[in-house]
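Tokens for DUF485 domain-containing protein. Go.
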Amino acid sequence: MGGHVTVQHDASVYEQIQSSDQFQELRRRYRSWAFPMTVAFLVWYLLYVVLSGFARGFMGTKLFGNINVALVFGVLQFVSTFLIAWAYSRHAAAKLDPLADELRNEAEGKAQ
């Protein structure tokens, strides 16, 4: 029913892959992108929160019409979130996915 194939994976296959240089390189590539980007985004987000709470005059400065600095910063929070997601997808496709595919193929080969 459903056409699902069940493959029994030996835990030692995963342990071997986890200790491999390829896997460690995959982790390094992921972490070297994800951690700095996470810190940058959190700083950007907290800057918005802190400015909203403690720099009300600045955040209330009208730029044009009824559009003030706070509204622009708020919209930029959404824009930066989408840009980070887009940048990560490009990074993953170029740097992570090829290596992950190699590791998966290796794991599937060892499990059979």
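The radius of gyration is 22 Å.
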